[in-house]
Amino acid sequence: QVQLVESGGGLVQAGGSLRLSCATSGTIFSPNVMGWHRQAPGKERELVAQITNRGSSNYADSVKGRFTISRDNAKNTVYLQMSSLKPEDTAVYYCELFQRGYTYWGQGTQVTVSS
């Protein structure tokens, strides 16, 4: 089975930066999409960024220009470099893998941005 494990969350001041990592285990097929979603209290889970195995990426408008998603296909690991963080970025961030018609999720990691 596929398992996703996030790391790198924590507390950071507004304007700061943070890098999230998501390591995978199990069989990863191609094509696939990996990415990050987030969920703030009282709000729906929303897409933050996604990247395909070919390197094509897309971002939510709210993070475009501040966040960068990348992946290491040899390690089957995806990263999210977050810069110029804002209090509204505070949320639980979830790693995702979409392959063969199924979406797999990590357990989430808390990101808190203080003002």
What does the model show?
Helix content is 0%, strand content 57%. It has 115 residues and is an all-beta fold. Strands 2, 4, 5, 6, 9, 10 and 11 form a seven-stranded mixed sheet that branches. A four-stranded antiparallel sheet has the order 1-3-8-7, with no helix packed on it. The chain is globular. The model has no long low-confidence stretch (mean pLDDT 97).
How do you describe this structure in short?
The chain is an all-beta fold and 115 residues long.
Q: Indicate the proportion of strand residues.
A: over 45%
> How many helical elements?
0
Shape: globular
Which stretches of 5+ consecutive residues score pLDDT under 50? Answer: none
SSE topology string: EEEEEEEEEEE
Computed over alpha carbons, the radius of gyration is 13 Å
The main sheet comes to: 7 strands, mixed
SSE-based structural type: mainly beta
Tally the beta strands. 11
| C-alpha termini separation | 40 Å
**Helicity, as a percent range:** under 10%
* Average pLDDT for all residues: 97
Q: Strands, helices and their partners?
A:
Blueprint: E1 3-7, E2 10-13, E3 18-25, E4 33-39, E5 46-52, E6 57-59, E7 67-72, E8 77-82, E9 91-99, E10 102-105, E11 109-114
Parallel strand pairs: 2-11
Antiparallel strand pairs: 1-3, 3-8, 4-5, 4-9, 5-6, 7-8, 9-10, 9-11
Supply database-style keywords.
0% helix; 115 residues; four-stranded antiparallel β-sheet; seven-stranded mixed β-sheet; mainly beta; single chain
